Fold this sequence. Notes:
This protein is an alpha/beta fold. The chain has helices at residues 20-28, 35-46, 50-63, 65-73, 91-98, 137-150, 168-177, 196-204, 218-225, 231-243, 262-271, 299-315, 342-345, 377-381, 384-392, 401-404, 409-412, 417-424; strands at residues 3-7, 15-18, 86-89, 107-113, 154-159, 181-186, 208-212, 247-254, 276-281, 321-323, 346-349, 354-356, 368-371.
Amino acid sequence: MRGYALLYGRHPSEISIIDPSHAFLLALCDQGLRATEIAFIYGYTFGLSDEDAKSQVDLLLTRYRQYLTFAVRHNRSERFMPQKFLFPADTLCIESARVGKWPVPAGINITLTFSCNFNCSYCYQDRHQTTDRRWNFDKCRDLLDEAADWGIVFVGFTGGEPTLFDGWLELVERTLMLGMVPVLTSNGVVIGTDPNIPLRLQAAGMEEMTISLDVSSPLLHNRITQSRGHFPKVVDAIRFLRSAGIRVVVKSVLTPMTLPVVEDTIDFLVNLGVEEIGISYMEGGAIKSSANRARNVTQEDLVRIRERIERKQAQYSKICAIHSPRKADEKWNEREWHPCGGINMGMSIFPSGEVSVCDKMHGVEAFTYGNVFDSRLKAIWNGEAFAMLRERCANRKLIDQDCANCSKVDLCRTSCFVDSFNATGSYLGKNPSCGGPFF
Ligand SMILES: C[S@@+](CC[C@H](N)C(=O)[O-])C[C@H]1O[C@@H](n2cnc3c(N)ncnc32)[C@H](O)[C@@H]1O
Ligand code: SF4
Ligand code: SF4
């Protein structure tokens, strides 16, 4: 045993291999001990002077603060203790983790259904895809049980609209009961029809969920979602969730239609008690998605909107965290490198049973590496098809030459395949947001 993997999220930047002594320190946290007591035990165990023990522990507590903050936020429940995020790692495991291959993915993402009650103009999903007739509640429940046994931490539920799937609520409850963290994103219509749903979620231990809402006007909402009369339900969903004590994050997508009213939307959401708003740039999507045909905002618009959002961030700094869309024309530099975690840390599972690296890539054969109707999750993750896919994505002869010469390629594997495809026509093209290669 040479080390531990510390896992905070699904993104490669949130994962580190740490020394066993650091793992030991983290295991002492969240047990009711104070920093001075931790320093005493740590110093005693490793034969350090009081002074050395204190300074080392201070340093390590600062270094691992994000993990400890996470633990404190969720300390009502045992599964969020930091040691649950520590994975014992043998030499082979550490070596493969260094090139982005983990023994267990941090999360699985289940597209419960391709269907939706909205038809958002910007949607990145192709909602006209095939579902296997065996895809049902029982199959999804079995997948959750398998994931929990295997050590999965996060379970994403998405769609289409996940709450249209028969039994979605029971699946979320089961995820919590099994000690995993559900990551649920919904358009809110179903949740807004029944205040008991948030109460059930809360009783099961749900602490946070994401509702998508882009505007504060019913008419504009109709136009964006190409549906009629759902706006009050979405607002009710936020209200019910808040009353049940569930933290609501709202995700809004910036489009030419939402751009002029961003301030109104923020004011409206803050007044509803929303504590976090993520305003995102409209990304490209699945090959047949409407996102790829929709009119997007311009770079000039983005610069101006960021300034306008900054003013709102300052106004509401104490009550709501507001995230601006990323600067789409700004390239990552070496220190701010944002590779996609899909191929390293997650499995996307579809109603066809197929497993792919990303929920935007259903049906892209070259990136489909298994089917849950044929094999178990663990066998798919450790299987030959996935090994070959990973090999292809770092094969210097196949990938972009910048990537082939880049020191990060084994962890990055050219990053977001969908962005690369939309920009270059090749899934193995260099990510358009990357300022690399890095050496
Ligand atoms: C595909 S939806 C599925 C879940 C659910 N139907 C919903 O809308 O919340 C997941 C999230 O992606 C966002 N989204 C959809 N298309 C997008 C795009 N082209 N760019 C950025 N975000 C997008 C939605 O607003 C939503 O927050
Ligand atoms: S973004 Fe969500 S709500 Fe809108 S059409 Fe896509 S799946 Fe449906
Ligand atoms: S050059 Fe390619 S491999 Fe290197 S960081 Fe950029 S996208 Fe990733």
